[in-house]
Design a protein that fits this description.
Strand content of chain A: 15-25%
Radius of gyration of chain A: 27 Å
Distance between the termini of chain A: 60 Å
Largest sheet of chain A: 8 strands, mixed
CATH topology of chain B: MetI-like fold
Oligomer: heterodimer
Largest interface: A-B, 37 and 27 residues
Order of helices and strands of chain B: HHHHHHHHHHH
CATH architecture of the domain at 1-107 and 199-254 in chain A: 3-Layer(aba) Sandwich
Structural class of chain B: mainly alpha
CATH topology of the domain at 1-107 and 199-254 in chain A: Rossmann fold
């Protein structure tokens, strides 16, 4: 045992004494071209039995802070950490790595985003849990056979009780990680983190890779465990909705600094930093139709090493003064010390005008043009009884006899990614497809582009072209002129060795008869259409930010002038503050070019706010199709209702909170709802 | 502001700090090529015989001495370099070209892989040098440069094809290939425009490996009398000629032997360097090593003071 205070006396810290405290934690990573500061003077504390959410967008330094405080980051990168990170009286930064191993085993449990990567694929879950038990109890070094057997059975007992505690059946313990779903894997990771009976649990985006329904279960589990065990919990996330669900207090990070920290009700209900306010406004609200354009923060999150001089959010803040731009602001703390803001003038009173200026909301002038009646247009995409089955192709003849003898059952195992879908999408419609992982929503999109071929008996018609017929290159080109696709991850879908102009010109060369000059002119036109500077054409994808890359992908899709654009999760790889920019661009382009969208997403709030109609998919089947208004009024299918219920909402129960927080202006809490 | 020359100089200086061995061996490689090309114009003819001064040690006239026909060893080693380096460069180009095409096609059109790669596998099933000997003998009654080139191209093509195929397979799964398909780009164009450029770093690294191997294989074949025939010198046939005199006149065998060692090392280590330039993971390792070197130097200057920084 390393600490001055024995474990039995944990309760000694209970009353408002910080169990874990970071003071001026600064992390510099040494790069080939000098040091890069990833975290800059982070100060925050976690009280015993409390849950603190560390919220921030990509590159805000939220994971870096926690990992370097736990001394894990130094294994992956050369860095210097200064300041202090105190856990129950011990400064973690002064410990040796050996002592840290004991701290991480006994006193702090850690859960990471990718459970699949963190588990060893070659061992059963039980074997790994037992190993964790032996390690966290400093056992496994004895030589006596009887002692070892006793230890092993103790480990098994302890592992079993944890497996049950995290809500899994005992039989699960004998499975290998790949035989389990993502949610089960994450539960096992949590069990493993609890093995050493830690005082504090650090969870780094533990639910980001999971579906919303599974996420809701994991969040509930974490809350229950934290209450039962009186643990402190640090929860790192980018999702304000998750933070609202689970936290007692929230710390908001931006560009390596804590910009605001305080009780959850205060942060969500009455934020005083413009960034916190703007970030909250950018989250699409559940069960709310979008009026006008989506709220968004102009610009993009600055990259580490290129932070602005004054207030780091000032360049993106329309309300910033010259002082904000020039001088780093001080930290202002409220009288009771519970709420701190890093700003020259914390905003206690948000008016509609301020919020509109901050989030680039253009007001009401576009409202009338936005919504488009569905159903009375002509059908553009028609799916009749469409199925797509994946599986091993039936192997015939002697090859089968040689290679598959005795394994008949396995070779013909098939899985229907899409099963018997009937769907009509009308011209000019914004059609949303919602579903969880494995629901077949992406496959459905690929079927519309003939990137996947449907099973026999399916009939797909796009812009009057029948995809089922035998097709040559000419028909293929004809189809692509009518339907194009925007993919999820622009980082991956733009060739790193081709310039932006090359990428946009690609479908033009392939599909149109334009000459060199015609193509170049069209590329310039497209760059302008997606609001990219004209010099962006010569750049490479790596030189652009995530939002800009997705603009390029959109420009490529609309360049040949299609009628239908299938967008497969186009914003899920982007930060919330940038998501609105891309969505607004899609909405504006739809109006200008009279496009039909098939918008595939897992984000129910987003799709309800922008789509005309929504199709809900589950295990390959289209469960129901309903208009956004029907969805808001209450879906009929239980699965849709379950999805809606699991959707994390930063504004859940905020009405009650708003009346508590005196500084809150009721009018500004839900400006979008008021306008509907 | 910054001319291309100064930026290039800065790049090299930066590279020197990070990856010394690459700069050193790349320079050696360039020197070897320059000497082989320019040497024969400066040095005495490699085939002028003076039997009176056969098997002599180093002198001012003959820096590396003379061989069993009294020919200048230095000028023979240099002009052998012309043949050996030239032949291995030619073989590399052919094998890498052919292997890349096979690998790209097999990796991109996965249906062809079962035929193309089985052919490659069957070629790889033979030990390289045995297959080369068999091919040279089968191809012509009188061994020579042409037969050797064909034989070694056949031998080395599968090694390139295999690596390129696996790379092409990975690239074909990437999003931008799907995106290009969705944009209506035809298969062959995707292969040339997207898959090939992204596989190029792998191909380049593989080329240096093939070049070193071809050099060795050429030396082996001409040592066995199956390569370029004397009196045209190659490093391999020089070693064969020098074998009887290994104890009486060691420089005769050491000179071409050293040339082979240096050339093969230069190709391999410069190849490693190229890999570190194009592979981000190898680059990260190099950065780390360079940093440790710098720290070791710093702490050496400052003595024991900075021996173990507390948060390191």
């Amino acid at each position: 045992m390393l600490t001055g205070v024995p474990r039995e006396d944990r309760t000694a810290w209970k009353d408002n004494v910080a169990l874990f405290e970071l003071k001026d934690l600064t992390v510099d990573v040494h790069g080939p071209n000098g040091d890069i500061r990833l975290a800059d003077g982070i100060s925050l504390s976690v009280e015993a039995g409390e849950t603190l959410c560390v919220v921030g967008e990509s590159g805000s330094g939220k994971s870096v802070t926690m990992l370097s405080a736990m001394r894990l980051l130094e294994f992956t990168a050369p860095l210097t950490v200064s300041g202090s990170a105190v856990l129950g009286g011990t400064d973690l930064l002064s410990l040796s790595q050996q002592a840290m191993t004991a701290v991480r085993g006994h006193r702090v449990g850690m859960v990471f985003q990718e459970a699949m990567d963190a588990l060893n694929p070659t061992q059963t879950v039980m074997a790994q849990l037992c190993e964790a038990y032996l390690l966290s109890n400093d056992l496994g070094r004895t030589s006596g056979r009887r002692e070892r057997a006793a230890q092993r059975s103790a480990a098994r007992r302890s592992a079993m009780s944890l497996v049950k505690e995290v809500g899994l059946e005992e039989s699960v313990a004998d499975l290998y990680p790949h035989q389990m779903s993502g949610g089960m894997q994450q539960r096992i990771m949590i069990a493993m983190a609890l093995m050493g009976e830690p005082e504090m649990l650090i969870a780094d985006e533990p639910t980001t890779a999971l579906d919303v329904t599974v996420q809701a279960e994991i969040l509930k589990l974490l809350q229950r465990l934290q209450r039962d065990r009186q643990m402190s919990c640090v929860f790192v996330t980018h999702d304000m909705g998750v933070a609202a669900e689970i936290s007692d207090r929230i710390a908001v990070l931006y560009a390596g600094q804590v910009v605001e920290i305080g009780p959850t009700s205060q942060i969500l209900g009455a934020p005083q930093h413009p960034y916190t306010k703007a970030l909250l406004e950018c989250v699409p609200r559940p069960n709310t139709r979008l009026v006008g354009l989506m709220r968004t923060i102009p610009g993009s999150v600055p990259e580490p090493g290129h932070y602005p001089a004054g207030d780091r959010f000032a360049p993106r803040n329309a309300l910033a003064s010259q002082q904000d731009l020039d001088d780093p602001p001080p930290v202002v703390t409220s009288a009771d010390g519970r709420h701190s803001v890093r700003a020259w003038r914390p905003v206690e009173h948000w008016t509609d005008e301020m919020v509109d200026a901050l989030t680039g909301h253009p007001g009401d002038q576009v409202v009338a043009e936005r919504s488009r009646p569905a159903g009375d247009g002509e059908p553009v995409v028609v799916l009749e009884n469409v199925s797509k089955t994946y599986g091993t192709r039936p192997v015939s003849g002697w090859i089968r006899r040689v290679t598959h003898s005795g394994r008949e059952g396995k070779t013909n195992r098939t899985r229907a990614a899409v099963a018997g879908v009937n769907l009509t999408v009308y011209k000019g419609e914004f059609f949303g497809v919602v579903g969880e992982t494995g629901s077949g929503k992406s496959t459905l999109g690929k079927l519309m582009l003939d990137l996947e071929q449907a099973d026999a008996g399916s009939k797909i018609t796009v812009s009057g072209l029948d995809l089922g017929q035998a097709r040559g290159l000419v028909e293929e080109r004809q189809l692509r002129r009518h339907v194009q696709m925007v993919f999820q991850n622009p980082q991956d879908t733009l060739d790193p060795r081709r310039s932006v102009a090359d990428a946009i010109a690609e479908p033009l060369w392939a599909l149109t008869d334009l000459g060199r000059e015609g193509v170049e002119a069209r590329v310039r036109e497209m760059l302008e259409a997606v609001r990219l500077p004209s010099n962006a054409g010569a750049k490479f994808a790596s030189e652009l930010s995530g939002g800009q890359r997705q603009r390029v992908a959109i420009a490529r899709a609309i360049a040949p002038g299609p009628d239908v654009v299938v967008a497969d999760e186009p914003t899920s790889a982007l930060d919330v503050s940038v998501q609105g920019q891309v969505m607004n661009l899609l909405l504006e382009l739809q109006r200008e070019l009279n496009l039909t969208y098939v918008f595939i997403t897992h984000n129910l709030s987003l799709v309800t706010s922008v789509a005309d109609r929504v199709g809900v998919m589950r295990r390959g089947e289209l469960v129901e199709v309903l208009t956004a208004d029907e969805l808001i009024a209450g879906a009929s299918h239980p699965y849709t209702r379950a999805l809606a219920a699991a959707n994390p909402d930063p504004f859940k129960g905020l009405g009650a909170v708003a009346s508590v927080a005196s500084t809150t202006n009721h009018q500004t809490v839900t400006p979008i709802e008021e306008k509907t | 502001m910054s001319t291309p020359v100064t930026t290039a100089a800065r790049r090299i200086a930066q590279e020197w700090h990070r990856n010394r061995s690459f700069i050193v061996w790349f320079t050696v490689l360039v020197l070897l090529i320059v000497v082989s090309i320019a040497g024969p114009w400066v040095l005495p003819s490699p085939s002028s015989q003076e039997l009176a001064i056969r098997l002599q040690g180093p002198s001012l006239d003959h820096v590396l001495g003379t061989d069993d026909y009294g020919r200048d060893i230095l000028s023979r080693v240099v002009s052998a370099g012309r043949i050996s380096l030239g032949l291995s460069a030619l073989i590399t180009m052919l094998a890498v070209g052919l292997g890349s095409v096979v690998g790209l096609v097999a990796g991109f059109y996965t249906g062809t892989s079962s035929i193309l790669m089985r052919i490659m596998d069957s070629l790889m099933a033979f030990p390289a040098i045995v297959l080369a000997i068999a091919l040279v003998v089968a191809l012509s009654s009188k061994p020579g440069a042409l037969a050797e080139t064909i034989a070694l191209t056949v031998v080395f093509t599968p090694y390139v094809a295999r690596v390129v195929r696996s790379r092409a397979l990975t690239i074909s799964q990437r999003g931008f290939v799907t995106a290009a398909r969705a944009a209506g780009v035809r298969g062959v164009r995707i292969l040339v425009v997207h898959v090939l450029p992204n596989a190029l770093p792998t191909i380049m690294v593989q080329a240096t490996f093939v070049c070193a191997s071809a050099l060795l294989a050429d030396a082996s074949l001409s040592f066995l009398g199956l390569g370029v025939a004397p009196p045209t010198p190659t490093w391999g046939n020089m070693i064969a000629d020098a074998k009887p005199y290994i104890s009486s006149s060691p420089l005769f065998i050491v000179a071409p032997g050293t040339a082979i060692v240096i050339a093969v090392m230069a190709f391999n280590l410069a190849g490693d360097g190229i890999r570190s330039l194009v592979d981000p993971r190898a680059k990260a390792v190099l950065n780390l090593q360079a940093r440790e070197r710098r720290q070791a130097k710093d702490s050496g200057i400052r003595g024991s003071q900075a021996a173990s920084p507390p948060h390191q």
